[in-house]
Design goal:
The protein is α/β, with parallel strands linked by helices. It has helices at 19-25, 58-66, 89-96, 116-125, 134-141, 158-171, 188-205, 216-219, 240-245, 250-258, 297-301; strands at residues 2-14, 31-43, 47-51, 73-78, 81-82, 99-102, 176-180, 208-213, 225-230, 233-238, 307-309, 312-314. It is built from eleven helices and twelve strands. A hairpin with a 2-residue loop joins strand 9 and strand 10 (233-238). The two termini are 30 Å apart. It binds adenosine-5'-triphosphate (ATP) and magnesium ion. Magnesium ion is lined by residues 58-59, 180. Its main location: membrane.
Length: 320
């Protein structure tokens, strides 16, 4: 059974100017659709990766999943509980206790005045749990030393700080961790170490991850399934091998062509073609059609629905 089930998830932000400006400048209200009609499942003990360019709605989906943002439409169910609509507070609390989030910037998410011991144990202390020796144990689990518990965040490198964030996320023994670009602020050499650590922990502890990244190559080895987002919509979903060997959506193909490749070091990599459209006035039909080399009339007129194609799912009129 799926641990997380996301159905027709949509989030619209009101980005209008203040009322007086609208009246004086005669402007309409403006709405930005950050996430539109996204559906996918995350199986228990698996890693689902969400990839897409900046502004494609990845973080917005992550925030709705952990309950930091309310969906405008659609639902997120975790073990059958819809965090935004469930009336039974005890059930909501039980599900919440199973979820943690790890953010991109490890420094901003660590309180600089607290010792690492207190930072790591905080989620457990907040629930009145037993924190004796907990931070020391977790520090060793993430490859740091128990002695580090007495230090402050500024005494660590970026990679070590992200390990502290991971330790804190593990403290409350969650089942599901939403990782929002956990390695993109790190040096390339450290990225791989932190990724390996996260992957080992996932195996050892039987965790489920929603792993968010703008970089397809980062998620290639860690994920069991990959969803590709474009302008708030899921355009393709497949296993990583399938996606890399046989990308079906022209957008995925373009992303892969633009990704740095082993062996192409020092060679020019073509940058992604075209501009990301304005999400307040998205293109008609398939939002990718202005950038798409395969676009036909139907792509301008009709939004492609997600359909099954040889084991993968793709939302494209032209994909064969
Ligand atoms: N609170 C908000 N109010 C208004 N617009 C928002 C808000 N949060 C996000 N957006 C808009 O929603 C869209 C999706 O944002 P989101 O942060 O989910 O993108 P992302 O895929 O995580 O991008 P990045 O890779 O840069 O982190 C963007 O156009 C963004 O400007
Ligand atoms: Mg983001």
């Amino acid at each position: 059974m799926a641990l997380v089930s996301i159905k027709n998830l949509t989030r619209i932000f009101d980005v209008s100017k203040p009322w007086l400006n609208r009246v004086v400048e005669r402007r309409e209200k403006a709405y930005l659709t950050a996430v539109s009609d996204v559906s996918f499942d995350i199986k228990e003990k698996s890693v689902y990766a969400l990839v897409g360019e900046s502004g494609s709605g990845k973080s917005t989906i992550g925030k709705m999943l952990v309950g930091l943002l309310r969906p405008s439409e659609g639902s997120v169910e975790i073990r059958g509980v819809d965090l935004a609509r469930e009336q039974d507070a005890a059930r909501v609390d039980a599900v919440r206790a199973d979820i943690q989030m790890i953010f991109q910037d490890p420094f901003a998410s660590l309180n600089p005045r607290w010792r690492v011991r207190d930072i790591i144990a905080e989620p457990v202390a907040a629930r009145g749990g037993d924190t004796k020796g907990l931070s020391e144990k977790l520090l060793e689990q993430v490859g740091l030393s128990a002695r580090d518990a007495g230090k402050f965040p500024h005494e660590f490198s970026g990679g070590q700080r992200q390990r502290i964030c991971i330790a804190r996320a593990l403290a409350s023994e969650p089942k599901l961790i939403v990782c929002d670009e956990p390695t993109s602020a790190l040096d390339v050499s450290v990225q791989a170490q932190v990724l390996n650590l996260m992957s080992d922990l996932q195996d050892d502890l039987g965790l489920t991850y929603l792993f968010i990244s703008h970089d397809l190559t980062v998620v290639q080895h860690i994920s069991d399934r990959v969803g590709v987002l474009y302008l708030g919509r899921l355009v393709e979903e497949a296993t990583p091998d399938d996606l890399f060997d046989n990308p079906k959506h022209p957008y995925t193909q373009m992303l892969l062509a633009a990704a740095p490749q082993l062996g192409s070091f020092g060679r020019d990599v073509p940058p992604p073609k075209g501009e990301i459209p304005d999400p307040i006035n998205p293109p008609s039909g398939c939002a990718y059609h202005p950038r798409c080399p395969l676009a036909q009339d139907i792509c301008k007129a009709e939004r492609p629905l997600m359909r099954d194609l040889r084991g993968a799912k793709v939302a494209c009129h032209m994909a064969e």
